[in-house]
Write the structure tokens for this entry.
Amino acid sequence: MTEQDLILLSNIFKTPTLNWVTKECNKLSKQERLHISKVFFKLTGKLFSTILEPNINDSFSEIYENVGQTFFENVYTNSQILLNNKNEWRKKVSILRNISLFSDLSTYDLISISENIQEKQLDADEAFLVQYELVEGVYILEENVKIYEYDQANPITTRNGIFGDDACATGDDYSFFTARVVKDCTAYFIPRKEFLNLISRIPDLQQEIFQTIANRAIRSSKRAEEQKRLTKEILENVGQGSFSINHAGEIGENYTSNATEYLGQKNLAGVPFADLVFQKDREALRNYYRALHLMFSNNQFDPDLVLDLLPHEVTVNQRIFKLNYSFIQDNMGNVLSVFIRMEDLTRQREIEAQEAKEKIIQEKIQQNIGGFLNMLDEVKNVMNTLKSFEKNYIKTLQKPQSSELRSLMRILHGSKGLSGQFDLDNLKIALHDMEDCIQMIGAEGVESQIKNFSEHLKTVKAGYNYGRDFKKNLGSAIIEILQGITFSKEEFERLQTDILKGNIEAVKAKILAKNSVSASAIIDNWAADIQKLANNLDKKIDFFSDIAEEIQIPKKLANMLNNELAHLYRNSVDHGIESVEERKKQGKFESGMIRIEVKQVSEQLNIVLEDDGKGLNEAKIKEKALANKNLDQAQVQKMISTNKCWRILFLPGFSTAENVTSLSGRGVGMDAVYTAIQELNGLINMESVENEGITTKITIPI
């Protein structure tokens, strides 16, 4: 943890209340929140995921419930202590770093240790530990200390470092020896309870402690039974998924309860570790047993080579674990056993995957910022409509009109497609589930969906809030420009001058220029979305566009066409373009084709969207339409009799799909297209040739 981290934490938890913490975290960018979540993980090992949930208020409520207010108070208090006493803790960290036990620990770990240190002044020849007397904690000294056993006159050894750790780590109450300082000095003291807490929180310290105590036992020639007891007690006392393996690769009798949980087996003694983690990975098995042979051959071996052969990350029971190794050796350097500590990385990998996912989302947003902002507006409109629906029907138990249900289904379906363009999967799923709910209300009535509607509304809101977080990173200036017309002071003054002079056409031209975009905005993000949908359906599709750069259209029109025409290309991807196998049988190229052409003729926008798929199955369309009791059969008969079978596709509630998917099947997408074209006073026509494809022509006045 850096000083900057401490300052940031200090600000966040300055006032340990939910409102304050939420307010401060809402100020953070997505990247800052990801960073702080990792700091939380280092502090607690379990908090880093909750801060990344879409609804930040719910996140901190959950943190409060799980950890409590004390955590926040302690973070702030400790941060202030460290920030206000930089020189003091830097000195402590420096001293700890000079002691071999702590030399490889991170600065953050050393800061955590230094927070628990108490300074004690010791006089020359003073005994701070006495054999067979109570050990209250551990002592850390830079100066040399004489070690005595059994009231002997001469010390058995002289060393510096840490003392009392044996008793604390193994759970013994009394000291194994007497320790006397050589001269007046200052000792760092950590109480027993705090020391055990540090061991459980700092995996690297745990490993160092185990290695140190085990090696001391070997060097002091303790009997094998005593060494076994020490090993077992250390493992149980420090927790984690820890165990030892012998020359045959079998797990020893000493292992922690966490190890049984991680490896999914109650009795681990004698079980080959490789059988539990490698399964069918032959290369990993070969390397593992080769490493064992090198370690236990009673010959000198290269530790780096052995560590390269051993696995450092494994997946067991859908959880990801990091493996840390320590070698327990005798006085001759021969390996007696290997100590393995399993560190659960599952949650850490989840956050890394989420970080990678969010990077992709950000890249897609940057490629089509205007479309993203429009999508957020559409979803916000959906939520407002859903809230009104809840007030008017869910709470009153009144039955909604069919036309209102269809209208709601249309905007839900459109917003779902837009959110999918930016890989906002949670929002897309939430909108899809709400579609299901609205459809059930139409079929079974309001009463059957009261609880579901409320839950789905919450998830839609959460998905919207998650997407809105990305908007914060765009910057206010670019959002302002893309969301509406903005004029600088100078531009506005020039407009006023033109108005006073009567140059109305010049004023119109300037406003139109500000409010217009290239017609290519119609297909923003289409290529990426078509490719994604094709991959999901295991199809190959090429997308082509022919749009003159000079064509300028109103932003609002571009946004609407981008949203609604997407239903047409999705229909082509889902129903029109065949699979690779089908296309080969018909003598077609493996890759299907979707093409859009946009031209301006006078004051009309002409759009042609075509594919080279299977075309319309008119017999199936007629059969489905005539069997659908929800359709106006007189209208259906008229369309059939006038050879406008394609027109049935645009009727609300009609679909040829056998099953509802996130892509199609509800009969609302094509209806949304037709409704949008009508609202624009436009015309739409569709031509189909069996096994050659569909051509859709749209004309819109501009």
Remarks:
- DSSP finds 30 helices and 18 strands in the chain.
- The two ends are 59 Å apart (CA to CA).
